[in-house]
Give the backbone structure.
Amino acid sequence: MKIIKRILLLLLIIIGIAIYLNYPKLNIISGYASKSLASNAFIANRSVSSIVKNDNNMPLIKLAEVSLDKNKKTASATVFGLMERKSIYREGLGSVLINDSFDASKMTLKPNRNKVIDTLPYPFGNNTPIDTIFNNIDYPQLNKHITAVFDNSMESKTRSVLVLYKNRIIAEQYIEGFNKNTLILGWSMTKSILATLYGTLEYNGKINVNNRAPVASWQKDERKNITINNLLRMQSGLEWEEDYSKISDVTKMLFLDTDMTKGQEEKKAIAKPGEIWNYSSGISNLLSGILRDQFGTKQEYLDYPYKALIDKIGMHSMLLEADMVGNYVGSSYAWATTRDWAKFGTLYLNKGNWNGEQLFSPQWIDYVTKPTAESNGVYGAHFWLNAGGKFPDAPRDMYSANGFQGQRVFIIPSKDLVIVRTGLAGHPDFDTNSFVSNIIKSIN
């Protein structure tokens, strides 16, 4: 009996030490679980059981116990009954993880949408796509390659694949429980949406990306020399830790900060602008704040992404989520259907022209696809590149919007292709090189 008591005491001590050492992480764990539940339930209309089984089934995150209140539009999560975090859904602004400083009464604005009902077939409209058969496509081979990434879903966890060739759908497939109307979180694909808004501003003469970033707090020190271009290329020279496995700058920003535009702004310089390349979600949210300051009112800022881009090209399913004070989380939180993510790629494939209207300059594509120094040819301006041959069997002109867990919108101008893949697993579990190259091989 004494031995059993000693063993139990030892186990309790070990558990106690583990909780003590990881207690700060519980805030992040329960925060992630709560936010994920709220967004997937209220934006994507998915069941709690599906979200817990799939989206929250990650190391540490799966320790969280969650609950959903459909009437109040709230979600909460705890870990071992500790560190409760709550998220709420706001119409037009999505779900947000809140803290004690949140004041719902101050958040009365929401974006105005212009969801025009059109008569054009997809992708340039929202009606039934034209059923085009191309003689140079080996359809059985194409479908075989795409089906393969679903058959292996325990590893690759693919949710959807859509392939557009010459602006026509040549393949489209979904995992059980998902379809063409299911909204999917793009994670860092949101960064490319944000960058495109700067492209529209520059095209209309509202901003010059080579100008110094208009951040008031930087004007009395060396940070005043940072340009918008430096920010878009992740070359600010500012301190930032992008590590999701621990409490870092990015996890504090996404799961603790009230105003997500401030985290990167307040960091010190560790290099001159342009000297180093350091991927930072904080930069993207800082850019969201700079975008906000281009307008006279908060309402104009909230409207602009939809007015200038999203609703302009009929991405009517898309929703940009905002932080507690109403800033768009430009680093991470755009939701859309697979078809609407493909529309975004189609806009770039067509050099910024949509049904005869130019939304940004064709030279903007040259800009975002120009390799950024020190990135080894993998990064442009808020887009990822294959210029350095990271994917050896894919064309070097391929570029993409990339997000956590393998969310991708690939644009391949030399092949007239847009490929969208969404899922719950990225590198190394999902073989991007084979996936893209096999699709290309199916087109003669």
